[in-house]
Amino acid sequence: MRFNLAIAGAVLPSLALGFPQMMGGTKEEILDMLKERAELEKREPDLVSGLLNTVGGLVKTVVSDVDGILGSVAGGLLNPNDKRPEPGYTFQAPGAGDSRGPCPGLNLLANYGYLPRNGYVNFGQVLDATARGFNMGTDLATVLATFAVLANGDLVTESFYLGSGPGSVGGLNRHSTVEADISPNREDYYLGCGDNHHLSSRLFQQNVAFAKAGSGKFDMQTMAQQYSASADFSKANNPFLYAFPFPQIVSVAAFSFYPAFFSNGTFGAGGVPNYESISSIIGAKLDRSTGQFSYVPERWPENWYRRSYPYGAVQALTDGFTQIYPSNIVVPLFAQLGTANFNATNILCDILQGFRSITPLIVAGTEKDAGTAISWALGKLDPVLGIGSLGCPSSVLSPDQPDILFPSASQTGGPINSPSVQASKAGNNVYNKVYFTAAPSKPACS
Ligand code: HEM
């Protein structure tokens, strides 16, 4: 570390430099100190982070982990057309009435107006915005959006809320439909006492520590370690952990979404899943005085380029189930598990088959309602997953089958009927706060 005595002597003692608000003084004096600190940080970043690290304990570790992985921006071949946001799309933090939930990708797209800013979105808008903003493949977006409409939204308008639906009914917050336990940086539904949708400070601290100990990036290896540690924690502490197939697929794939979608530039072709990109896109803002991450509205960093070619369902499942999931097996309900036939195509066919044989779910109504819902979903999925595309076997719709895809769909606490949670934790995201400073080994209801 370069140590410039002239600067250090001329400015302030280290503590005041790190924590001006703790030194007392008038508002003007504190503002002056902050200004000086910002200038010094620009000129002498090593010096400032070194001084901050003298304060000790966890704060020191987290801050130094972050400083250790600050790095480069996109490299490789960049197409100017991939720069985001495009002209005409501007960041605007969500207001009190806007719906935001567990998906950082969709939250961000709504914050820029790629999706309606109020967070009430429809099928077509989601396919369009996810391709345009992040180059998500149409097949992957179709599978996700179909489940979201079916389990969390409204079939007639093909729409859903990004967070909680009106009266806390539906929306992506709804547990174990698309939202799942063992998420990259959200707590389990039961242990979070219903809060499965705010960024967890302690989980991101863990994620940063894995990045620091590895390549310094949020690559597949870092995310596999994050998955493995969180799977261990959930197995040990969450009696309602239930690896229900579809949400489990989403949650495993979501770990690979970090490098695959949030890298600046194309992951694997010069793009980097670095701290600057990841923390900004998932809305994690480090408070250097506490070492905690507050949850702020999701935002692209400056000079950010989306991946240059689509990342689709087969690629996402292949990455998820070959690079993330093997680090800690949580047994799902797939017939092919443990055989040579356990591959992305077969998992996608399982999804399609599952749809063909289920009795529903939120519609929880008549057989006719059920049939309508499933026919709708199959109509969306067949063109991207069906016989013509992946070669899945065909079968008939049988709404009488006891093989229910979303058991106890209408019960309190979500489809798997886990215990009730606090209603106050189930609403839309509230930003600019710190959530979960410690691991919740019991439901964090207070
Ligand atoms: C196409 C429609 C989409 C739907 C319906 C959807 C839905 C969801 C849901 C319900 C979750 C919570 C899963 C969990 O509990 O682990 C989630 C998480 C996530 N989604 Fe999305 N998503 C979509 C598109 C996207 C896109 C385009 C991206 C990236 C650009 C993305 C990135 C992520 C990530 C990284 C997480 C994990 C968040 C965390 O725990 O840190 N999603 N999504």
UniProtKB/TrEMBL annotation:
Segments passing through the bilayer: none
Signal peptide (residue range): 1-18
Record keywords: Heme, Iron, Metal-binding, Oxidoreductase, Peroxidase, Signal
Tagged with keyword Cytoplasm: no
Domain Heme haloperoxidase family profile intervals: 87-318
Family to which the UniProt record says this protein belongs: Belongs to the chloroperoxidase family.
The protein, known as: Heme haloperoxidase family profile domain-containing protein
Organism in which the protein naturally occurs: Aureobasidium pullulans
